[in-house]
């Protein structure tokens, strides 16, 4: 009997089990507290699609062997630049969104490529250097947001220099995916476009992992020595993985922004890598292994947990933001757990 | 005749080549520090802040921050890298402050009680971090950083939600109106807290302290050299280049100090500098920590730190309990960070319950690295120099940004970029050197 | 008890999971004696030493049988620390020195002399100050005993390798109670003159009454330095000789011996191959592989043969295949079917018809968390673009052909598994090896390099893997270059065997050649001997 339980937990993974149970408990509490369950469901689904692509960006990074991409802000600022230029040149609606992605691509590819070269020089310390690369890029771009010559009246401060902290997307591509083929089921809103876009992204990444290059990349990440002996250029594979992750980060932030309705600049991207890393780890990935299923399960559990926790926590303690504290504990706890599994250099 | 001349010239060029090579390696080794000296000088110039303001502000900040920076040295010695976990030590200090302020014990008694109370708390935290880091060898720095974030979550949970509900506490001044949770800011000023408890014990004009310190340096340094040479088998000259330059530096310093103090013809804005006062008690505590750091290296424990730091495996083979030594190193660092936070906060005067500790690790580590330290090597001198440079940048960058670009924010972003950038850069450089080292070892 | 012994080991037996590695081995060492322990890799030398030092690996695998006496007192050493306490010291093969420390600090590592101070009186000994003066004095004394002119305050980092060994020795003799010193292949990394110095020092130490147990496979050193020799082979005590009663030839024969009968290779079959053209010719080939450096070899591989590459560990035999495949940096000339092979380029080597089964099966040979079929096809997919479906610019793996090829290989090579999707991590060693071979075969190579094919797999599986190689050779006419530490298996399957010593080919022998010749070649004495005879 205990053996069976052990096997079960092993298969499911302890963190997934704990978070899953916790999520369920909160959900039951929400029902007991008579909170509007359909709104909670809608929110969960919306946030699932909103964060999905950002979490998906972790997959190529982990698969190519550079570990969870803590330098996600690098991709994010590329996406932001794409979004801003798209607005600046007056693209709106679907064209604005597609344009934003298209414009951000060259930036993201270039940034990912140079960052990949950097990562190849510091093998073994990727995670820490990535974190600080991400941090410093955010502050570097904060200076840039003031200097860059954007002129569009909706983006710049009416008085003074530089771009606003938050830029509303109502008139451009806000909610463009969320509203696409949206339909309600029993009070639960299904943002079809958003979900389709996320699942399509997943499909693309999945197809890539089954291509020749994808297989080479996975081998390079799994066992660099094996890859070397099989005539695979390990460094190149790592660069490809990093570029892909950066590009997905750029697309991810645009999906996030259109769903949120605002582009957030300055320090907003600073900590964005951590929830994404936590989500994929909750989904069952480790610092060296990740699959698409981990993304889908992880982002659903983590975002669902946070969505439901907020109103439930507010019912129990009206003061302060318990849900934010919960996010910090869960998010960093799971990363710590994953780090202890990396195994040291003993 | 011409021949000897030729030889002489040749020797001279050789000599100058050697010197230029030395200079080159000096500049490469200290490139970060030199770069920052230049940036700081430019910043000082652009900001147009009066020298008096910069100096006095700088002295305050040095006395406020250097203890925290110094608390980073021991883990570096033990090969655990830069301890991003000093944030957790800072939390231990803050827990002690909240308790002591709640009990209403003020002034120096309050401060000492805080110091005492933070010992067991910091030791427990340190033990926990150490255990965690032993499970994540090779990834200590990222682990200690994430551990800091994690602990921050728990800290917030305790002081926002648990206090007043699970932990019984009643204090209308410190707590939120609902009776649950501590306010965002806790006033530590004179009548209610520990503000300036240490700083105001005794204040002495900085210039006098400097003068005394310079004289003391001359006497003590000469004494040490004399003693060393007498006892050493190695044949050395009493007067080496280093000795000579130190002595000259000290005498020049004394001369400048004397001019400032006794000469009447100095313009008023410079004369102001003599009015700057130094919190002597705080300085003594910091000096005490420096002394402690020096002494610990000379003990058996210090030797164990060094052995573990140099090579885990060999240390283990030779019978050292590596894990225990690492836990001790981290615990010491955590405890020192707790005390450092106490010194920091008694100077600031208000406790920002949920913010004071957050940036401590980043800023302290950036300061240490700017001073020229690396992940595997850090000295007291680097810590102090780094603190001076980093905080000069801190003081001048908003004004410099405003004067240059008409926006103070740019200066603030710039210094944050610099702090994160310099950490990223040195970590990257360290990792790169390590890899190159491994490669060349194989060849 | 007519004679006094420092160390006596009596009837030591040890098995790892039913696999006997030591069979009734006895060993006696007198004070002041230099006793050599001679044997091939895997003869049981290190296991015997692990028992002596009470290494955890012994206790965690069920202990051992037999008795150990130190100074005629029966002891039961449970940990290396205890061994140290009763006076047994070890000079390690790889240096246990801290490069950033000076000689004194290294000699006194974790045995620092301390003195009390105010603080330590309260808080305990770990805050005692180091007494550097006393430490320096002790270190000086130890260094003087070895007659080393190094300064005790010099850092280890800049020392030549030869001196590092002496620092290690100085550390051991500085331990006040040391009675027995074990030298584990101390000359492996030394130059000849350094090795001579070491011998002198050893004699000096022995003269002071400390016994020395000297593990080696260099025969001339045994004759030069040792008083007595114990030879182990396959976990058995072959002989214990006095130096006066033996010579290099005798020892060579004792060390190798014949273990299994040369198998079913038909003599005429071999004759035929003799005239075959050479498929791979290697000239002045050097490989920069740490620990297995190749220092200029000349070798011809003939089409359709199985060429064995043998030799002791660390002599460079493993480096040859690794170098040709471009895994470690190499220089020289390699011609495949008469054409120059681009060196240092794995892709090129694979493309031109070479394949490699690595000696490090789990570390290099397999993707442990991928399925069997994926492991089998991945290299071929990358090199030859097979097992792929193309859609314009994009390609996708062809699951169908991968599955059918995987099943075919599983059947052909008789890989015991639950199915082609089983993870290779869960397979046994022998089956993992078969997957590695299957991966190499999928490339359809002209020349197959196989390194240590039977390392770490059980006896039954060993035979299967060797039979498989012979079958491939016979049925497909595949040229095979097999590198192995086990001379017996080389002699069982190969047509010719090249023995590598000190990074060079010492000689090439028929499998049926005399034991003595193999022994001399492995010990690197064959040429010396041969040239002497010629004179």
From TrEMBL, chain A:
UniProt keyword Transmembrane, yes or no: yes
Pfam families per the UniProt record, alphabetical: BPD_transp_2
Keyword entries, A-Z: Cell membrane, Membrane, Transmembrane, Transmembrane helix
Major site of localization recorded for this protein: membrane
Transmembrane regions: 12-33, 45-62, 69-87, 93-115, 127-148, 190-208, 239-257, 263-283, 295-313
UniProt subcellular location: Cell membrane
GO CC terms, sorted: plasma membrane
One Gene Ontology MF term: transmembrane transporter activity
Membrane topology type: Multi-pass membrane protein
Name the UniProt record assigns to this protein: Monosaccharide ABC transporter membrane protein (CUT2 family)
Annotated source species: Marinisporobacter balticus
Organism taxonomic ancestry: Bacteria, Bacillati, Bacillota, Clostridia, Peptostreptococcales
Automatic annotation (TrEMBL), chain B:
GO molecular function, one term: transmembrane transporter activity
Entry GO terms, CC: plasma membrane
Keywords linked to the UniProt accession: Cell membrane, Membrane, Sugar transport, Transmembrane, Transmembrane helix, Transport
Main location per the UniProt record: membrane
Matches recorded under InterPro entries: ABC_transp_permease
Transmembrane regions: 26-46, 67-98, 110-133, 145-167, 206-224, 244-266, 278-297, 325-345, 357-376, 383-401, 413-432
Protein name: Simple sugar transport system permease protein
Lineage: Bacteria, Bacillati, Bacillota, Clostridia, Peptostreptococcales
TrEMBL record, chain C:
Gene3D superfamilies per the UniProt record, alphabetical: P-loop containing nucleotide triphosphate hydrolases
ABC transporter domain location: 7-259, 279-527
An annotated Gene Ontology molecular function: ATP binding
Pfam family, one: ABC_tran
Keywords in alphabetical order: ATP-binding, Nucleotide-binding
Keyword Nucleotide-binding: yes
Taxonomy, superkingdom: Bacteria
Protein name: Monosaccharide ABC transporter ATP-binding protein (CUT2 family)
Organism: Marinisporobacter balticus
């Amino acid at each position: 009997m205990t053996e069976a339980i052990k096997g079960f937990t092993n298969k499911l993974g302890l963190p997934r089990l704990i978070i899953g149970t916790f999520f369920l408990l909160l959900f039951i509490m929400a029902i007991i507290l008579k909170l509007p369950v359909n709104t909670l469901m809608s929110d969960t689904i919306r946030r699932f699609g909103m964060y999905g692509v950002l979490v998906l960006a972790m997959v190529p990074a982990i698969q190519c062997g550079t570990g969870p991409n803590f330098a996600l802000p690098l991709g994010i600022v590329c996406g932001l630049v794409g979004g801003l230029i798209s607005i600046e040149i007056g693209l709106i609606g679907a064209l604005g969104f597609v344009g934003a992605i298209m414009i951000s691509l060259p930036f993201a590819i270039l940034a990912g490529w140079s960052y990949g070269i950097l990562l190849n020089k510091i093998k073994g310390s990727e995670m820490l250097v990535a974190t600080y690369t991400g941090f410093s890029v955010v502050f570097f771009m904060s200076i840039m947001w003031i200097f860059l010559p954007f002129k569009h009246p909706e983006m710049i401060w009416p008085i003074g220099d530089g771009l606003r902290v938050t830029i509303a997307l109502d008139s451009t591509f806000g909610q463009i995916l969320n509203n696409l083929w949206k339909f309600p089921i029993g009070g639960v809103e299904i943002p079809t476009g958003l979900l389709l876009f996320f699942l399509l992204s997943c499909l693309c990444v999945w197809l890539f992992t089954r291509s020749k290059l994808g297989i080479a990349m996975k081998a390079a990440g799994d066992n660099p020595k094996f890859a070397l002996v099989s005539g695979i250029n390990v460094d190149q594979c790592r660069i490809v993985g990093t570029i892909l992750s950066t590009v997905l980060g750029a697309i991810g932030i645009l999906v996030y922004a259109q769903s949120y309705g605002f582009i957030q600049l300055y320090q907003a991207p600073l900590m964005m890598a951590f929830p994404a890393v936590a989500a994929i780890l909750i989904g069952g990935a480790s610092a060296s292994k990740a699959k698409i299923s981990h993304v889908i399960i992880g982002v659903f559990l983590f975002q669902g947990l946070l969505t439901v926790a907020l109103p439930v926590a507010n019912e129990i303690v009206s003061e302060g933001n318990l849900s934010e504290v919960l996010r910090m504990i869960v998010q960093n706890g799971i990363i710590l757990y994953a780090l202890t599994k990396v195994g040291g250099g003993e | 005749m011409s021949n000897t001349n030729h030889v002489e010239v040749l020797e001279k060029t050789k000599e100058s080549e050697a010197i230029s090579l030395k200079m080159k390696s000096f500049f490469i080794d200290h490139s970060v520090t030199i770069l920052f000296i230049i940036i700081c000088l430019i910043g000082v110039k652009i900001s147009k802040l009066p020298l008096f303001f910069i100096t006095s502000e700088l002295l305050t900040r040095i006395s406020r921050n250097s203890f925290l920076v110094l608390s980073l040295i021991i883990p570096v010695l033990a090969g655990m890298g830069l301890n991003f976990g000093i944030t957790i030590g800072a939390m231990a200090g803050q827990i002690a402050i909240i308790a002591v302020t709640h009990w209403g014990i003020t002034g120096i008694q309050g401060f000492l009680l805080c110091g005492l109370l933070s010992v067991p708390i910091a030791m427990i935290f340190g033990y926990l971090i150490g255990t965690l880091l032993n499970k994540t060898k090779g990834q200590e720095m990222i682990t200690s950083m994430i551990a800091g974030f994690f602990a921050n979550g728990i800290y917030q949970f305790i002081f926002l939600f648990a206090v007043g509900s699970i932990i019984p506490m009643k204090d209308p001044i410190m707590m939120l109106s609902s009776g649950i949770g501590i306010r965002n800011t806790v006033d530590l000023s004179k009548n209610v807290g520990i503000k300036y408890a240490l700083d105001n014990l005794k204040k002495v004009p900085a210039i006098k302290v400097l003068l005394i310190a310079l004289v003391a340096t001359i006497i003590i340094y000469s004494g040490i050299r004399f003693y060393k040479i007498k006892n050493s088998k190695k044949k050395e000259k009493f007067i080496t280049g280093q000795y000579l330059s130190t002595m000259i530096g000290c005498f020049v310093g004394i001369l400048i100090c004397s001019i400032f103090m006794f000469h009447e013809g100095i313009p008023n804005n410079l004369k102001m500098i003599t009015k700057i006062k130094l919190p002597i008690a705080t300085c003594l505590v910091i000096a005490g920590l420096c002394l402690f750091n020096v002494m610990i290296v000379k003990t058996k424990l210090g030797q164990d730190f060094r052995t573990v730091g140099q090579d885990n495996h060999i240390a283990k083979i030779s019978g050292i309990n590596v894990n225990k030594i690492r836990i001790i190193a981290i615990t010491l660092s955590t405890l020192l960070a707790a005390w450092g936070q106490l010194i920091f906060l008694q100077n600031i005067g208000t406790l920002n319950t949920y913010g004071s500790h957050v940036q401590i690790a980043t800023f302290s580590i950036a300061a240490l690295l700017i001073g020229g330290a690396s992940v595997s090597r850090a000295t007291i001198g680097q810590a102090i120099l780094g603190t001076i440079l980093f905080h000069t940048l801190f003081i001048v960058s908003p004004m410099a940004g405003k004067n240059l670009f008409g926006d103070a924010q740019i200066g603030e972003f710039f210094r944050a970029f610099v702090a994160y950038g310099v950490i990223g850069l040195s970590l990257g450089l360290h990792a790169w050197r390590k890899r190159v080292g491994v490669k060349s070892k194989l060849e | 008890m007519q004679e006094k012994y420092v160390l006596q080991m009596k009837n030591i037996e040890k098995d790892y999971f039913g696999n006997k590695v030591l069979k009734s081995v006895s060993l006696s060492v007198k004070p002041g004696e230099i006793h050599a322990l001679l044997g091939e890799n895997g003869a049981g030398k290190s296991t015997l030493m692990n028992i002596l030092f009470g290494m955890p690996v012994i206790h965690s695998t069920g202990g051992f049988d037999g008795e150990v006496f130190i100074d005629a007192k029966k002891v039961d050493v449970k940990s290396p620390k205890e061994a140290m306490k009763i006076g047994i010291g070890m000079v390690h093969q790889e240096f246990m020195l801290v490069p950033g420390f000076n000689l004194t600090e290294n000699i006194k590592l974790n045995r620092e002399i301390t003195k009390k101070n105010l603080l330590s009186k309260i808080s305990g000994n770990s805050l005692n100050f180091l007494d550097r003066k006393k430490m320096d004095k002790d270190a000086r004394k130890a260094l003087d005993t070895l007659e080393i002119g190094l300064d005790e305050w010099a850092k280890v980092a800049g020392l030549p390798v030869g001196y590092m060994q002496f620092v290690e020795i100085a550390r051991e003799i500085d331990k006040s109670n040391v009675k027995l010193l074990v030298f584990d292949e101390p000359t492996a990394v030394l130059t000849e003159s350094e090795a001579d110095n070491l011998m002198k020092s050893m004699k000096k130490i022995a003269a002071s009454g400390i016994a020395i147990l000297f593990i080696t496979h260099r025969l001339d050193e045994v004759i030069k330095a040792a008083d007595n020799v114990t030879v182990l082979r396959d976990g058995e005590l072959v002989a214990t000789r006095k130096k006066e009663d033996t010579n290099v030839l005798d020892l060579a024969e004792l060390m190798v011996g014949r273990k299994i009968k040369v198998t079913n290779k038909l003599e005429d079959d071999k004759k035929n191959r003799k005239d075959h053209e050479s498929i791979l010719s290697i000239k002045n080939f050097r490989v920069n592989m740490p620990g297995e450096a190749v220092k200029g070899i000349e070798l011809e591989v003939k089409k359709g043969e199985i060429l064995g590459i043998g030799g002791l560990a660390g002599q460079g035999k493993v480096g040859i295949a690794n170098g040709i495949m471009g895994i470690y940096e190499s220089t020289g000339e390699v011609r495949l079917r008469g054409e120059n092979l681009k060196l240092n380029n794995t892709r090129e080597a694979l493309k031109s018809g070479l394949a490699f089964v690595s000696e490090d099966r789990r570390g290099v040979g397999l993707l442990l968390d991928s399925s069997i079929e994926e492991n089998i096809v991945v290299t071929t997919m990358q090199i030859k673009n097979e097992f792929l479906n193309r859609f314009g610019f994009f390609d996708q793996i062809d699951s169908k052909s991968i599955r059918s090829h995987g099943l075919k290989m599983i059947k052909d090579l008789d890989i015991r598994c639950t199915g082609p999707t089983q993870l290779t991590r869960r397979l046994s060693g022998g089956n993992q090896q078969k997957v590695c071979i299957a991966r190499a075969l999928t490339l359809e190579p002209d020349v197959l390099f196989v390194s240590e094919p039977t390392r770490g797999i059980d006896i039954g599986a060993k035979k299967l893997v060797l039979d498989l190689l012979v079958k491939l050779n016979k049925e497909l006419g595949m040229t095979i270059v097999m590198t192995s530490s086990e001379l017996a298996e080389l002699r069982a399957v190969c047509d010719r065997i090249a023995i590598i010593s000190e990074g060079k080919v010492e000689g090439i022998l028929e499998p049926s050649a005399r034991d003595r010749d193999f022994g001399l070649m492995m010990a690197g004495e064959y040429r010396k001997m041969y040239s002497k005879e010629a004179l």
